[in-house]
Prior knowledge:
Layout: E1 8-11, E2 17-24, E3 29-34, H1 48-54, E4 56-61, H2 77-90, E5 96-101, H3 105-114, E6 119-125, H4 134-139, H5 142-153, H6 155-172, H7 175-181, H8 187-192, H9 196-209, H10 215-225, E7 239-244, H11 252-261, E8 265-270, H12 277-281, H13 283-300
Parallel strand pairs: 3-4, 3-5, 5-6, 6-7, 7-8
Antiparallel strand pairs: 1-2, 2-4
Amino acid sequence: MDGDRQTRLLNLPDGRRLAVSVFGDxxxxxxxxxxxxxxxxxxxxxxxxxxxxxxxxxxxxxxPGYGRSDVAPGRRFADWAADLSxxxxxLGIGRFALLGVSGGALFTLAVAAxxxxxxxxxxxxxxxxxxxxxxxxxxxxxxxxxxxxxxxxCPRLARPFFRSVVSPLLxxxxxxxxxxxxxxxxxxxxxxxxxxxxxxRLVASIAEAFRRGGDGVVQDLELLAxxxxxxxxxxRVPVMIWHGGDDRTVPxxxxxxxxxxxxxxxxxxxxxxxxxxxxxxxxxxxxxxxRAMMEQADARA
Length: 301
């Protein structure tokens, strides 16, 4: 499914625009998909067919500076919650569920923390947890530790380096992002990336992430490397966490940490699944569970 043909630009109160693509059932239950890092709204195409089958309206938005969304200078996690709230209102959506994948996890949780009355259910898939927690940073593979560490401890050096050197390289060769992870990939991830449809969709999403340059990616890196501006303990919506037992990109220690920190969280560790194989091979299972959580929330309302 080509998300680019479905893209709509939403106008925000401050004059910026957000790029939105809808996948799955256009009249189904609304779920806002929070893409990874780096990624874009096109990433949601990986589970589009399952969303259509299950009656889920999967709404994917480029975070500011990614894809076709305008840059928001100095943005924080709270600003993303405000942006998503405005987008939902513009689309005529009152209550909705959230699905955060990989580096989109903390942005998803920020929305839940700030929009308590509008979020009915929340799912995290191979979610990156705060790397300011030492054991979570150490669990990552070396290149990721170096990137987050450089941004956290030397931001004045890191910002121009990632904006002027790393981002142009990855924009020109988006497949390199996957190549950088290849040495640590488990068998499940290597197998799923041999599928042309999966690889093409992932590379297209990464390429779209750098459409406007690297500002959005660099902003995300700085936010993910730093302290949170919201409390995880304030999140009371039902939370389901799925994490692959063989994930080497974001190890399962991150999912276990979330399960211990979030008051309502339930963790499902899936043996044999990696970082990329989990959302692709288990996408139907994940969306079906999230839909059931939404139905239960509606019944309680």
